């Protein structure tokens, strides 16, 4: 770095320089690399004092040496980068559901809260402040956490592409998330649910949820081709996606796309399971096989009654005209079932928790339960605090029955 050169000397190519300009402002120039056209990428900084411009030059040199200098061109704002990333970079490479989650986090939380910042000037403190504001305005800690994960992923891509030198979201402290307590139904409550479900259409849907713990998307994505009633096996291969539509009307109807009379579906009905653990065969209890046989008979009758209106997609659980069930409709059906059974309110996912807990209490080996549920190792630990105390209680009863009863008194005589 040089400010003055002796007459007849020349600074080496690529050397940084600092000088006082005719405008009374200190300038610094640093060569940080080569542009796409092959010419040197020489950056310019300025400041009112020599000390300040020297600091800026040294920072640029450090970033150059570390390979973290922002690429040349118009500076990115957080809004411009997130919008570009979510639509052009992440959308083609992730699932529909994941992409939808990213879009919500970007549109609802990240752009309104951080969008005006220059991307390279975004600090962890800015992000932590947004997390606090989100929670103060009523967002759950898990929602703030999801927004942070989305931002961390987006900024990670910006770092890889050289638009910023560091990932500020990776440095920000995440909000504390308290894992929601698993509250499965008791066996008696499960029996109440099944009794009430038997009175309803597609009752086998809830038997699969409560007995086998299928996720909503897994159950609604099943086709009859996935079920072998003679062998007593069901194969989970795909998950049902929430429908998405665009307008199909010539003249604007003034409604949301999903309510347009000529709506056009733009998302497939299903997607393949996202992991090897999710793709799995599950053995069916004999009673469940009989329930599914009766369910097939009722569906065949519905098909005959619907006639030409029936759209045959081979769905295990279908509407009255053969179309796949909408996840939203299925959710409301679950809530209505719980109310009709006279039970406490519970999430649809709690049916899955119930099935898992019953399997563990029955002493089914962990590896078998993980296969049935499509779990990873970490997911098994969520149920440890529920099952262990119950199993200890059973062991205590067995101990009292076998060793603390009248027979043990006789032996001591």
UniProtKB/TrEMBL annotation:
Domain Core-binding (CB) span(s) in chain numbering: 76-159
Sorted UniProt keywords: DNA recombination, DNA-binding
Gene3D superfamilies per record: 1.10.150.130, Intergrase catalytic core
Domain of life of the organism encoding this protein: Bacteria
SUPFAM superfamilies in alphabetical order: DNA breaking-rejoining enzymes
Domain Tyr recombinase: 180-396
Keyword Aminoacyl-tRNA synthetase: no
InterPro entries: CB (IPR044068), DNA_brk_join_enz (IPR011010), Integrase-like_cat_sf (IPR013762), Integrase_catalytic (IPR002104), Integrase_recombinase_N (IPR010998), Tyrosine_recombinase_XerCD (IPR050090)
GO molecular function, one term: DNA binding
Entry keyword Glycosyltransferase: no
GO biological process, one term: DNA integration
PANTHER family with a match to the protein in the record: INTA PROTEIN, PHAGE INTEGRASE-RELATED
Name of this protein: Integrase family protein
Source organism of the structure: Candidatus Protofrankia datiscae
Organism classification: Bacteria, Bacillati, Actinomycetota, Actinomycetes, Frankiales
């Amino acid at each position: 770095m040089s400010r003055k050169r002796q007459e007849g000397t020349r600074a080496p190519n690529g050397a940084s320089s600092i000088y006082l300009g005719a405008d009374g402002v200190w300038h610094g120039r640093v060569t940080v690399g080569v542009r796409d056209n092959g010419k040197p990428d020489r950056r310019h900084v300025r400041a009112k004092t020599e000390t300040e411009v020297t600091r800026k030059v040294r920072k640029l040199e450090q970033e150059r040496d570390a390979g973290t200098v922002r690429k040349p061109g118009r500076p990115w704002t957080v809004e411009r980068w997130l919008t570009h990333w979510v639509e052009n970079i992440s959308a083609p490479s992730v699932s529909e559901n994941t992409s939808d989650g990213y879009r919500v986090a970007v549109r609802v939380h990240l752009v309104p809260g951080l969008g005006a910042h220059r991307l390279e000037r975004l600090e962890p403190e800015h992000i932590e402040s947004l997390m606090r504001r989100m929670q103060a305005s009523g967002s759950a800690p898990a929602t703030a956490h999801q927004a942070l994960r989305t931002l961390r992923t987006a900024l990670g891509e910006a770092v890889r592409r050289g638009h910023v030198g560091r990932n500020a979201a990776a440095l920000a402290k995440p909000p504390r998330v308290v894992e929601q307590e698993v509250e499965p139904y008791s066996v008696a409550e499960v029996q109440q649910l099944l009794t009430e479900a038997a009175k309803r259409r597609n009752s086998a849907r809830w038997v699969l949820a409560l007995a086998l713990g299928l996720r909503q998307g897994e159950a609604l994505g099943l086709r009859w081709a996935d079920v072998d009633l003679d062998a007593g096996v069901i194969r989970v291969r795909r998950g049902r996606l929430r429908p998405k539509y665009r307008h199909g009307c010539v003249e604007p109807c003034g409604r949301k796309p999903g309510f347009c009379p000529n709506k056009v579906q733009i998302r497939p009905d299903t997607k393949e399971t996202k992991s090897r653990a999710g793709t799995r065969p599950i053995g069916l209890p004999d009673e469940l096989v009989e329930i599914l046989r009766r369910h097939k008979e009722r569906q065949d009758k519905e098909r005959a009654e619907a006639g030409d209106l029936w759209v045959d997609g081979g769905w295990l659980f279908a509407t009255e005209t053969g179309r796949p069930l909408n996840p939203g409709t299925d959710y409301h059906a679950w809530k209505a079932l719980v109310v009709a059974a006279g039970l406490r309110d519970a999430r649809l996912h709690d049916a899955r928790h119930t099935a898992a807990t019953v399997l563990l209490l029955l002493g089914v080996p962990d590896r078998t339960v993980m296969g049935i549920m499509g779990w990873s190792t970490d997911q098994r630990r969520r149920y440890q605090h529920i099952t262990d105390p119950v199993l200890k209680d059973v062991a205590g009863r067995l101990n009292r029955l076998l060793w603390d009863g009248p027979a043990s008194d006789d032996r001591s005589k």
